Amino acid sequence: MSQSLYISLKQQHPQAELHVMAPSWCCALLERMPEVDKAIVMPLGHGDFKLAERFRLGRQLTKEGYDWAIVQPNSLKSALIPLFAGIRKRTGWKGESRYGLLNDLRSNKTDFPLMVERYAALAYPKPEMKDRHCLPSLPWPALSVDLENQQQALNNLQLNTDRPILALCPGAEFGPSKRWPEQHYAEVARQKIAEGWQVWIFGSAKDRVVAETITAHQPDAMRVHCHLLAGKTSLHQAIDLMALATVVISNDSGLMHIAAALQRPLVGVYGSTSPQYTPPLAEKVAVVHTDIECRPCFKRECPLGHLKCLRDLTPNKVINAIEKIK
């Protein structure tokens, strides 16, 4: 979703050079964003403070002569490197009371309900950004596809496009309260395979057990059309292969937003979270969720222990959603 900020910046400053510092795993995404001129690997982990290391990184960046730093994370420590780099203009939301660290500090975050709006607002002067209605545009993320890499991935993984492709993204790093039950995914997969489709199951190595469970629930004769890709692809390969999907079904996860940025027909499954904050930004999207009174709770694990928001979301509801967006 941060690509919406980058597009907004390039629209206003087409000659600007845009560098993005991010964790190494993000670099595959940044390389598919035409607006990003250079990706800089952030060597520190999410919870690492390491003041001396941040000071060293900041001093290294001084030689680049940056005019402007936009700090997207809300943490205090994330604002230290631009300060140490001596960057004159430092923009970001107030977050963890970052007075002094940021000198273009924004404090009206609630006037921009969507996360993507909060990112995009940072591209514009503070006096102009009173609320979401002041955004002149909200460009959607749009990732590029490497066709040569795509064909190589097809060959290496022994895949083909002879049948329509149902891409499943059953994982979610956030926690169990975002994961639609694998048995429900398996039922949707079974029905689509019976209709002549094939199934590609995406995810990281952590999602492999869930993916194997979905495959194991298929009748023996159908398993040949169910391809387990979780843990077998790089992020580059996942992007290029997902671009071939006829339809994607995904939990509220990073892969959901990748599918949206590829403009694939998408069914987004929401449990404890809400599309009112992080909706997929694409033309052909169906969002499905239950309407029980305890959701959205935004918890990693169900505080009531029943996960009804996901278990009560039936496979038929998702199958019906597929028919609406194909």
- Give the biggest beta sheet: 6 strands, parallel
According to CATH, the homologous superfamily of the largest domain is: Glycogen Phosphorylase B
How do the strands of the widest beta sheet line up side by side?
A: 8-7-6-9-10-11
What is the total number of structural domains? 2
Q: What's a quick, concise take on this entry?
A:
31% of the residues lie in helices and 14% in strands. With 326 residues, it is of the alpha/beta class.
Characterization of the model:
The chain is α/β, with parallel strands linked by helices and 326 residues long. The chain has 2 domains: 3-134, Glycogen Phosphorylase B (Rossmann fold); 147-325, Rossmann fold (3-Layer(aba) Sandwich). 31% of the residues lie in helices and 14% in strands. It contains 12 helices and 11 strands. The chain has helices spanning 3-12, 27-30, 51-61, 80-84, 115-121, 147-156, 182-194, 208-216, 235-242, 254-261, 308-311, 315-325; strands at 19-22, 38-41, 68-71, 89-93, 104-106, 165-169, 198-201, 226-228, 247-251, 266-269, 285-288. The protein has a 6-stranded parallel β-sheet with strand order 8-7-6-9-10-11, with helices on both faces. A 3-stranded parallel β-sheet has the order 3-4-5, with no helix packed on it. The longest helix has 13 residues, at 182-194. The model has no long low-confidence stretch (mean pLDDT 94).
